[in-house]
């Protein structure tokens, strides 16, 4: 994050210096042309060259500005997602290491007090210890949601299964996770995107859909990794531009798919549930390996 900020500052300084140089050239060219006009003499070759250099610099600056503006939205979207992921990891570490350690210390102190307090205070101390245990468990759950460490060790399928078990264990939702092929060798950024999109979809379902059944399907296709999420909830009317219409969760899912060059479509109607289809394309080398072999004639 600091490196990106440093790079942005460096580019801003460079553009500012370029503007100063162009302004200085324009002033010099104007003063030189004015001097030649007042002298009543034709423009010397040096002044003509100065005018040409000034025009070339202005044109180059305008072209660079248009190019920077053209690529700025995608660059900002990629940077925003990267910053969000880094911030999630930082918050997860602080919750697990700092707050988790403090709560563990408080829990040990409570247990120490419980062994030494008189009988009439035992119940109060027991309630305190139980509250600390529940709080510590919640902190660990939030830390795991912010930074799913099991993705690297367990893989995408096991991580999604563990997340669904934990998130839906106290609900009435019947869920199923289908993986028709082994998901080994999935690139990390693709696994993170699939995990986050499923995470957001399940959260939206619990908040708004009142669904009874959920299906999550992952499948290796020749063109990429396919993710399908279906529920039988209340449904809704998908926005054409989710970001502008306040559907931030849907906008975030779309941005994650776009960042990897993929696609995400949402099919839903009020009262008819919701279906999310995402496709993350393989990298060129992986796509070549996944393509069916050509038949020799």
Short précis:
Its EC number is 2.7.13.3. It contains 8 helices and 5 strands; from the N terminus they run αααααβαββαββα.
Description of the structure:
The chain is of the alpha+beta class and 297 residues long. It folds into three domains: 2-85; 88-146; 154-289, Histidine kinase-like ATPase, C-terminal domain (Heat Shock Protein 90), CATH 3.30.565. It is 65% helix and 12% strand. The protein has eight helices and five strands, in the order H-H-H-H-H-E-H-E-E-H-E-E-H. The longest helix is centred in the first third of the chain and has 72 residues, at 45-116. It is elongated and about 110 Å long. The two termini are 54 Å apart. Mean pLDDT is 75; it is low at 1-14 and 288-297. Keywords: ATP-binding, Kinase, Membrane, Nucleotide-binding, Phosphoprotein, Transferase, Transmembrane, Transmembrane helix, Two-component regulatory system. This is histidine kinase. It comes from Pseudomonas libanensis. Residues 194-281 form the Histidine kinase/HSP90-like ATPase domain.
**Can you count the helices?**
8
Pattern of helices and strands: HHHHHEHEEHEEH
The biggest beta sheet reads: 5 strands, mixed
Radius of gyration: 30 Å
Number of domains: 3
Strand order of the largest sheet: 1-2-3-5-4
Low-confidence stretches: 1-14, 288-297
GO molecular function: ATP binding; phosphorelay sensor kinase activity; protein dimerization activity
Protein name: histidine kinase
Enzyme class: transferase
Keywords: ATP-binding, Kinase, Membrane, Nucleotide-binding, Phosphoprotein, Transferase, Transmembrane, Transmembrane helix, Two-component regulatory system
